[in-house]
Design a protein that fits this description.
By secondary structure, the protein is α/β, with parallel strands linked by helices. The chain folds into four domains: about 20-90, Signal recognition particle alu RNA binding heterodimer, srp9/1 (2-Layer Sandwich), CATH 3.30.720.210; about 135-315, Rossmann fold, CATH 3.40.50.300; about 320-390, Orthogonal Bundle (Helicase, Ruva Protein, domain 3); about 400-630, Peptidase M41 (Methane Monooxygenase Hydroxylase, Chain G, domain 1, Up-down Bundle), CATH 1.20.58.760. The protein has helices at about 1-20, 30-40, 75-80, 90-120, 155-170, 170-175, 195-205, 225-240, 265-280, 300-305, 320-330, 345-350, 355-370, 380-390, 400-420, 455-475, 485-500, 535-560, 565-575, 580-590; strands at about 25-30, 40-45, 50-55, 60-65, 85, 135-140, 185-190, 210-215, 245-250, 290-295, 310-315, 430, 440-445, 515-520, 525-530, 580, 620, 625-630. Helix 8 links the parallel strand 8 (about 210-215) and strand 9. Helix 13 packs across helix 14, helix 15 packs across helix 19 (about 565-575) and helix 18 crosses helix 19 (about 565-575). It is elongated and about 145 Å long. The chain starts with a helix and ends with a strand. It is found in: Cell membrane; Membrane. Acts as a processive, ATP-dependent zinc metallopeptidase for both cytoplasmic and membrane proteins. Plays a role in the quality control of integral membrane proteins.
Amino acid sequence: MVWGGVFLGLLLVVSMFGGGNQAGGTPLLYSDFKDKVAEGKVETVVISDESIVGKTTDGENFSTIPVKNDPGLTQLLEDNGVQYSGKEEDNGNMLIWALVQILPFLLILGIAFFALRQVQKGGGAGGAMGFGKSKAKMLTEKQGRVTFEDVAGIDEAREELEEIVEFLKDPQRFSKLGGTIPKGALLVGSPGTGKTLLARAIAGEAGVPFFTISGSDFVEMFVGVGASRVRDMFEQAKKNAPCILFIDEIDAVGRSRGHGLGNSNDEREQTLNQLLVEMDGFEANEGIIIIAATNRPDVLDPALLRPGRFDRQVVVPIPDIDGREKILAVHMKKVPLAPDVNPRTIARGTPGFSGADLANLVNEAALLAARRNKRLVAMQEFEDAKDKVMMGAERKSMVMDEDEKKMTAYHEAGHALVSLNEPASDPIHKATIIPRGRALGMVMRLPERDNYSYHRDKMHANLAVAMGGRVAEEIIFGHDKVSSGASGDIQYATDLARNMVTKWGMSDKLGPLQYEASQEGYLGMGSTQRTMAGAETNKLIDAEIKALVEGGLKRANDVLTEQEDKLHLLAQALLEYETLTGEEIDQLMKDGKIDRPDEPKGPVAVRPAGSSTVPKAGKKFGGSGDSAPAGA
């Protein structure tokens, strides 16, 4: 904008001076001018090298361009009594000419200078002259102060980091006993467990400068930029020591070296090498505590994990029932609750939920209450929100014809009935034939308590339950009418059986050996390979996987064949009520009826003609983290 104004000003000056130097009056040909002089019609003239300006006897002004080296002009003027005078050469025209010539170059230089200044100003934010500058940002209380009071459900991790804060606040308390402040702490945990929240709490509690950066902010397309940014980041930290430096998602820059294609001296590895040197090299970084977070500790370089760089590895786990209750209490402070809301009950029904999942659950419940025009968020909203998060949103607008709805009901009834007859199976939370997410229907099971390991009898029970839907379809509708909806069940059962055989040593024929292992491939691409890949071994592995799945199929078939009358009863109840709770299913199996005051569902909508797509239905095994789409 500034240089645009300068350019317009120069144009105005040129036009002003250029206009002022132009000859005035009526233009004449030089020959006509001489004729007027000879006729005595010219009174006065002013002669210059570029023009002759004069006045006629009639009082009119004129101008003409003279012919160079006309020797008779002066004599002609004297013979006819014309008063003439000369004019000193005006160098202004030369100046204007020069200015007009160099003006484009001045304009280009001005634009380049302006662009360079702008780039330099934005260099720290990634400008062309600031590639090597660190993108670390200092966190201030303007972003919202977070303290350890806002962190719940991960008490052990919090205690580890509270000690670091105490180091910063009162270092003499520890140094007098010979202790030194930890140089770094690595937060390890699943997504959503609160790693970044813990780091922000440290920033809010410590009262020292807190720099935050993401691992991906180091790496650019230009080689050497990442290493330069690491150096600049630590220079900034040294100027503000004591301080805390938080690197989020450090696996983006800290992956194990040696996985590059061809030459391993690539940009990411140079950045990692510089980070290793800065964290613990010849130059000491006193007063700089590095905190990093990752959910992929298995891919990090061993040199990055050793003491002296990361002295502590703090595991941030999925919260247990007590932790979930505390987390819910933190998030529920912001929500007006109805008297019937019991955080303990919600915590018991959400095994496997992370802190982020619970925050989302509370938010979904609040949104549901607002949609229903309620002033308070009641327990019903939390139950509905939990079902939405676990099973997906209801697709009540989806139309299904009678035959497909009936097949869905028998499929889900098969899952539920097998689950009831498998002692190791988790209790049923809900069974529904209302389409949810990508599923036409599902049976949701929730464990009675938090599970940290799984036993063989439960895995066999899960195989049988997964096959229950397929078996029910075959018993009721015949072998030729089995649908494609069981594809998710088959996938789940196959994966479970493969893990039992190749990773968990649960095959009597193959023994307690690991036959498959995950490996880090080129460019970070993972793959699973069999570690004992002989032809006979592979054939035996495949046979054992098939035997396990077929064993689950047989167990499901035995249950459903023997209790076909209960299968009909449960399927008819699903067709009538569409959704049944675990308690209602137990009552139905015990008393043969359901005591529900609600009215049964309305008439079944009919699918338009020509629609033949059969989407997959889903069944989730709640609490264990296992989920398998099941057929409808």
